Structures are given as structure tokens and as C-alpha cells.
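Render this sequence as a predicted structure.
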Amino acid sequence: MTERLYHIKPVIAECRARVVSCEERDGRFFAVLDRTVIFPEGGGQPADNGTLGEARVLDAHEKGGEVVHTLDRAVEPGREYTLTLDLPRRMDHSRRHTGEHILSGLAHKLFGAHNVGFHMAESYCTIDLDRVFDDDELTRLEACANEAVMQNLPVTEIHTDEAGLAGLTLRKKSDAAVGDIRVVYIGGGDVDSCTCCGTHCASTGEVGYIRIADSQKYKGGVRLWFSCGGLAVREANALTRSMTALARSYSTSREELPAALRKQSDELASLKRELKARTQALCDMLAQREAKPISIVRAEGFSANDVKMLTESLIAFGARAALALGVKDGSTYYRALRADGEKAPMNELIKAVNGLLCGKGGGSPAFAQGSAPKPVTDEELASLRSFAEKWYEGNR
């Protein structure tokens, strides 16, 4: 069984290791060593990387009590090599895993929340908690987590078995824990206590900084995105720079930026309402002038939403069937609508428009719509009118 050196603190970054076996599959080599400083994937934490002699350690996983190292080249069974850990990657993972313990432990102690999921990716981490948090609670959780970091509390562990585990009061116990069971404590259990196989800092101060970046409701609870250490600082700095640049573009301060954005949003909403009212008035004016049993109308500058309004106005002002075509930004948007009681299938009419304009679209017998990547010409419009009038008479 592989001797595991990856839980020893201070971190052992290098050791001599003998190759027990090495197998090749699909261009990758899988080596078992007598000892290792490489943490295998587990507990939501990715595997360490490193080197074994000249070979790169790309991944590692546990199998049958052994740590299997994925290499980019073969190594010789029975031979000893120097195994070197990618220390920056390890420390990044340890900071984030310790940060997860701090957040999960305090979420439980402060709010009674239970951690039901943890995932550490290359550039982000998530925790799933079984209750919803409001903004004030998340602010408090983040503040208390960073207070625990500043107190530089010890991160310790004990080893026990199933019987010993049954007698311990922990935030979380692994149902699959058997044999030599590792229990990790943050601040002697005041912050967190749970069974865990991952790597951690020696003290909370090494985490540096914990930042809750985002939250989202998830399966009746919440999913938190968080970062730790240098990554958290870089993210916070990038956000500050972005906020500063945005505030300057509004000629205001970062503190006043939300109010400036709300003001602009309100003004934009007011302008949208005014534009919609003016467009409706224009549609009604066109409809009063163009409404007939089958109305075919082209409108310059009309979008897909605008032609919808125009067909409805045409029907409201007496048309029994209407086809509106809007020309905007080099494209044509069209929609067909029939009045109540009419039988002419609008989806069939749109097929004819698609064919003439090389467009795409469809719908139901009651209404249909589409678009073409070019403006409809006067000649095409005349052809549509001629076809539609005959088509409508044959489908009434």
C-alpha cells in the first residue's frame, strides 16, 4: 500500500520513491509508487501535479488502497526516482479547501446550514448549502470567515476508527469512512470539525482572504462561488478597477454608481414606453390607411416586434388577413396574422414569403413569422401582393 506523505505538515515537496508498477493505456502511463507526496483526486479536490524523474505527473487517483499516478511517459518498475510536488498548485488547493471548511463550518454554526456539496475546479470553487441565504447573511458569513482567517487558528487532525468516530460530535461525518479515519478540526472545532481526506493549511492565516463571489438558488438551498488567497485578491482588484472605470464613464464615484445606474435604467424604461406608444400610434395610422380584406404592408425601420404590432393593428382596423414586412439593418422581418373566423392558413402564406425572399420561418394556421437576410424590394413586394390576393381568395 502506498505510503502517503501528502498530509504531513510542513508540506513535503519532494521525496525519493520506488516504482512498484507502471502500465500504459491510450498513450498515458499509470504508475504505483511505494510512497508519494502527490494528493490523489478526492473529497471534491483535484489531484496534485508534479514530476517523477523526467516524467510529468498529470493526475492521480486512488485504486485498491494504492495511489495511481498518471504520467506522460514510462518509468521503470523497481527503480527509484525523485518525486517533486507542484507546490504552488498544492498550496492553492489547500487554501481553497481550508476556506471551504471555514465557510461550511460557520454556515452551520451561525445559520444551521448543512454543506451538501463541494466542488473545486481549476479557476473556481462552489459550496452547496441546504438553505437560502439573503444578502445580509452572506455578508455576515464572509465577514466571520475572514475574522477566522485573521485569528490564525490552528488546523489540526486526529485519526480514529469507526468505533471512535461514532463517539465524536462533528459537523459532518462521511458515511463511507472506514479503517483509518481522518478528522480535521479548525480552531479546535470552534469553527469546523468533520471527516476529510483533502489537504489543508497548517493554520487559517495561510488562507489569506476568503471572498464570496456569487450565489444562486440551487435545489432548495444555495450554491456559493468563492475564492481564497491570491486569486481572491486578484478578483477583488479586477472588480474594483472595473467599477472605477464604469463610475468614471458616468462621471460619478464608485459609491454613487448604483444610483447612477438606477437613474439610467429608469430613463431607459421611460424611453422604451414612449417609443412603444409612438410605434403603436404609427401602426394604427398605417392600418387605417392600408386595411383591406388581405393587407400586405412594408414598413421601413420596423423590427420583428414592430411588425407584430402592425399586423395586430391591421386586423383591429378591419383586415381579415395581414402580412407585415419590416425592413431594418439590411434584413426583412415579416409576420402573418388572420382575423377570428378566417380559415386561410398563415403558415402556408409564410412558406411562400420564405421562398420568395430566401428567408426562414414558420408558425401555425392562426399566425406565422420569419425573416430574410436582405431587404424586400419593390418588385418582390408587388409579387407578394399579387400572389397573396389570389391565395387568399382561394383559401377563404
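Summary. The first strand starts at residue 3 and ends at 4. The helical segments are 87-111, 135-150, 162-166, 229-249, 257-290, 304-316, 346-357, 378-395.
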